[in-house]
Amino acid sequence: MRYIRPLSIEDAVGELAKAVGPAAILAGGSDLLVRMKGGFIEPELIVDIKAIGGLADISETADGFRIGAAVPCAVLGEHKALKQAWPGVVEAANLIGSKQVQGRCTITGNLCNASPAADSVPALVAAGAKAVVAGPSGKRTIAVESVPTAPGRTSLAKGEIIEAILLDKRPVHAGDAYLRFIPRTEMDIAVVSAGVNLTLDDHGAIKTARVALGAAAPTVLLVKEAGQVLIGSKLDEATLERLAKICAGACRPIDDKRGTIEFRRKVAGVLAQRAAAIAYKRAGGK
Amino acid sequence: MNFDPRFTGRKFSSVGTRPLRPDGIDKVTGRARYGADFNMAGQLVGRVLRSPHAHAVIKSIDTSKAEKLAGVKAVITAKDLPDLTDGDAAMYDILDNSMARTKALYDGHAVAAVAAIDARIARQALKLIEVDYEVLPHVTDVDEAMNHHAPLINDAIFTEGLEEKPVKASNVTKRTQFGHGDVHKGFAQADFIVERSFKTEQTHQGYIEPHACVASVNPDGTADLWVCTQGHFVYRQHCAQLLGLEASKLRVTSSEIGGGFGGKTHVWAEPVALALSRKAGRPVKLVMTRDEVFRASGPTSATSIDVKIGATKDGTITAAEATLRYSCGPYPGSWAEIGAMTAFACYNLENVKTVGFEVLVNRPKTAAYRAPSAPMAAFAVESAVDELAHELGMNAVDFRIKNAAQEGTRASYGPVYGPIGIGPTLEAVKNHPHMKAPLKANQGRGMACGFWFNFGGQTCVDLNIGMDGSVSLAVGTVDVGGSRASLSLVAAEELGIDYSQLKAIVADTSSLGYNDMTDGSRGTFSSSMATISAARNAIKILRDRAAQMWDIPVDDVVWEKGHAIAKGEKYGNLSALSLKDIAAKSGTTGGPIAGHSELVADGAGVSFATHICDIEVDPETGATRVIRYTVVQDAGKAVHPTYVEGQYQGGAAQGIGWALNEEYIYGKDGRLQNAGFLDYRIPVCSDLPMIDTQILEIPNPNHPYGVRGVGETSIVPPLAAIANAVSNAVGVRMTHIPMSPPRILAALDAEREG
């Protein structure tokens, strides 16, 4: 096994592109090291991206926020402006694992691990976040929901690295929220989850809305219909009921050790309702 | 044995105080040595190859490629552990469980093992071992295994305990029955009858420290084993028998223990590590991974229980009956039998009958888990008792008080009780402020009682007095819950010295006589009895030495408050001699001063507890949250009350996990789906409220200080208390443990849909 710690994204991309055997990218390592220790994977090359300039920073740009791929989730929680603009994304990132894990893990890693139950991903999808991908043929920016394609699989090509996640600047009257269901209070994995992102018009009616569900299908789901049903409403009871129904219907869950199909469908709807209510309140809705 | 164990009602000066724990600093600084912390020069890494199949014939094992891998020093299969059990069926099962001989009987069953110079090579070697399996149909569910169409796990097993000798082999290894009176007559007298069926899923003790040992076998037939265990003397016996060693030539040293709860009463990896060391000629360290601990150590039974209880309008139980089916894994056990004994032990019943069935399944061999078998029986019985109280329109506590066992009651499992604590714990609960605290919406309160036998057993203690007057206490019961502190308090009490003058250790098997393992809540009960005896023997010598120093008859010397005192006016000018004074002169008065004791500690007093639980249920998701929890339990005498409270809280915490989320989940393929702490959900700290405790002290008449075991009873009531709380919160009777959110939501939906 070879471990390298390149100083530039080009070097990292180059090493990954020419790797012959299985290769892995190391940021926080909270997924990678566990999988290696469990004997599930034995990479021949590990590319540690933490020393690459800019990857460990959160920067505010004219368009919003740029979160480097090596920024630990705990750092998101300490960034006041980010927390104020995107509280749902930050709370999702700060639900992953334990305090110790949050000091290492990254939202980019969470995205690239491609688990349908990843906590930060539904919040990022609802937020309309984008991923900056560096690869052998240059850079491109894609929607985060296009990254995971199946459990454990991504659309990234050989040699490609996500170097940052982009979040838009917030208008006034905007709010997002993320909720997950776990049987415990912490240090658990989502049985089902929901992220909601809203903006309101000057009268408090919902202007735009995005709803995403986690652990409800092989990949995180962007439920467009659920967003549409919210638009124009002030979250009255009938709208919330329709929201729950649409979310339950959009799920393609499985029966497994963490929950049943019926449970996931039902709770997906409940969580979407509750997350919508929190996002609405955060946006200034009454 | 010239020792009177009867309770005397003496006043205490050390016992009942709360000094700092002697192992605390080592444990919080990481200096304490657990099973995996022992290392030897030249030590190899042992790893075990495990069956991926729930049930399969092992047609052949080819280890040749693994043996050729550079760095591999030994590869073993069952051939390297020949059968030396000489017709001892229980030992044969232990052998077969350590290393499968002809069939793999569960997912995780050991089939081969390697010792290599490092972990990587050991892992590679496992991949090079070729096992040819013939996969057989399997059964993992306790009810399905009883069905006569179920795959047979062992075709040589015929159900014991039936009136007619069976002609067909069965997965039911034994039927047992307890009780007295006539239940048919009793039910005929009842105005109200509750009859229900319950299920509990299999749980694991969940100790944080995985099984770990270092084995070193020498060519001269001697061997050493350093191991994390609840009973190093028992491990010695078993390993010596399985390996063909002489017991006294195998020295077993127990490490600090990171939890056992019954799960470290059984050998698995230890005979394998010894066999690897014997073959490799080098020491071998074998540490199980968490995955291996779940798949291949000893979880508790899954159960299926039917209960029927009848009562008259005035709240008198007229009859009680239960049928209990407990899974044993693939080897016979007596788990349902224990469940059948404990089921109605809290009550004074005229007509009672319990029947237990031991059931083989393709799951790991069941081992003890804290008051083994009692929590599931209590769940079923206490749920039915609660429901019956509701039907009668009686308060659930009053109903239990009316029917509680008391001194002189004939227990449902046979014996007649002496002084017991069930009534007092119920009265304490009735008067506890928790019972009167208001509840909010979606909250429910439940309470339940629990019983455990407790155990005494073989015990040996050495007490040695140093020339500086300090005292070392060597005990043979592994300290799983603070016994070193408690036993030091007891020795300080007897000798009349300060706790700080004492140091207690757990001696290895070559330094002390045989001790049964720390199970049955016996550690402090039995070793305190032996410590009292050893201290009294030392006091005899101390008095004799004082008599020599004074040149007076020993009969004129008494021992009081840590001093020898010359009794009588004629000795008025002799000032008392302290233990320290006498110890300082010991070299010239007859040599070292020590007290020894070996005894069978009989008369372990039975133990009762009553718990109260408040729970909040989210009706939209089935999520639960324990809001408040109170444990009331009889300790006989709490030697170190802080540790006793810790035992009460620990049992409740484990019971809460079991009741709400913990369970073994098997796939259709017979493989365990959740062999890790992510998906086997024990409670995390933030899941639990501070658990309140109340210690009652109803002295055990068979112990000089009145001590009863306290470690296990606390896990008996929680399943039922929580089930009653959830049922009261949501208005639906919960009958399947764990009450995970999907189960609660499904029960609520079924109720809503009518």
From TrEMBL, chain A:
Keywords: FAD, Flavoprotein, Oxidoreductase
Record-linked Pfam families: CO_deh_flav_C, FAD_binding_5
SUPFAM superfamilies: CO dehydrogenase flavoprotein C-terminal domain-like, FAD-binding/transporter-associated domain-like
Family annotation (PROSITE patterns): FAD_PCMH (PS51387)
Domain FAD-binding PCMH-type: 1-172
One Gene Ontology molecular-function label: FAD binding
Transmembrane segments: none
Protein name: Xanthine dehydrogenase family protein subunit M
Species of origin: Mesorhizobium hawassense
TrEMBL record, chain B:
A Gene Ontology molecular function term of the record: iron ion binding
Residue ranges constituting the Aldehyde oxidase/xanthine dehydrogenase a/b hammerhead domain according to the UniProt record: 29-137
Keyword Oxidoreductase among UniProt keywords: yes
UniProt keyword Oxidoreductase present: yes
Record keywords, A-Z: Molybdenum, Oxidoreductase
Transmembrane residue ranges: none
Cited SMART domains: Ald_Xan_dh_C (SM01008)
Annotated InterPro entries: Ald_Oxase/Xan_DH_a/b, Ald_Oxase/Xan_DH_a/b_sf, Ald_Oxase/xanthine_DH-like, AldOxase/xan_DH_MoCoBD1, AldOxase/xan_DH_MoCoBD2, AldOxase/xan_DH_Mopterin-bd_sf
Pfam families linked to this entry: Ald_Xan_dh_C, MoCoBD_1, MoCoBD_2
Protein name per its UniProtKB record: Xanthine dehydrogenase family protein molybdopterin-binding subunit
Organism field: Mesorhizobium hawassense
Lineage: Bacteria, Pseudomonadati, Pseudomonadota, Alphaproteobacteria, Hyphomicrobiales
